Please model this.
Amino acid sequence: MNIYLDNAATTELTDSMKQYLISLLDQWGNPSSLYAMGEKAGRILSGARQSVAAFINASPDDIYFTSSGSAANTLAIRGYCSRHTCTVLYSPIAHKSILKCVESIKGSYPLKVDKDGFIDLEDLGNKLDACSADPFVVTDYANSEIGTVQNVEKLIELTHFYNGVIYLDCTGSIPSIPVDVRKLNADMIGFSAHKLGGLKGCGALYKKSSVTLTPLIYGTQEGGLAAGTENILGIASLGKAATDHDYSSVSPANRDYVYNHILRNIPNQYLVGASVQSGNRLPHNLYICFRGVEGESLLFLLDAYGIQVSTGSACNSKNMSASAALSAIGMPPEDIHSCIRMTFSGKETKKQLDYVCAALNRCVAGLRDLPPAFI
Model:
């Protein structure tokens, strides 16, 4: 049996997506060209832009395609800071691409977060009030590692009260939580195709027309902000993923089935991030600390059973340094490497879920029974 429980890292291509992409393989023209082949590619590009815009209730003119979600993050942050004199206030549990970017910018300051990863609104208000330059707030909509969903409405309202601009990284949240940029009054958001069932190597940035950026890559494509001949296949996949995505099928049921089993049958563990009852947790995310168990060892044992999980963000999985998110929420150092993340597609069968539960029982118990010299 093979059960994939790492959907926050990347998602599989559906059969309809595969067939759609196969149908486009002969459309290899440059969309900037004026002859018929180029015009066909240009229509694919334009159609995808319209689909992505409709997906988040934006104008197509405000959608810019990038090479990834990380590229969208970088374009938004570095592009804005290069163009404006600003003070950057950022979430310390944001994606590594954000943290690395803001670290390189003078005048950037982390916000306080609580033990569940929620941004401290009082701290944000105080820091916004103390800004000597234009405030620029940077955060993820939801943390794809620990699953906590921020109160983005309050974050936006508070930022705008102090005449600031806010960027939301929606890569981890948009598969589960629809975004209406007009209703939210969001200044900028970014996300990627492969978290929605599209291809890797494509992301999108939305920005209000009033927000000005310095280009990430100079040239003429994408409004001159992210130049280079467009990745038509990747962009088309994002357009189709946006068109096909069905939020009505998003449910925490499979996540909760496994979590309830863990609570009943595996001792000395705890959930990391917002509670499942709060409504402020990604519905597919289950991030568990099994005390006394080395998370990477548990990952490999589960893989031997045909179950794929992660030890956190896939971008950190080959790095044994402490997760920035876990450190920021004050997790005990002895527990930081004792966690695994399971992220469900919602399509798992009861038979598969029962298999996962039984494997967790065996693997956790087996690792805890090992003599210290073997751990």
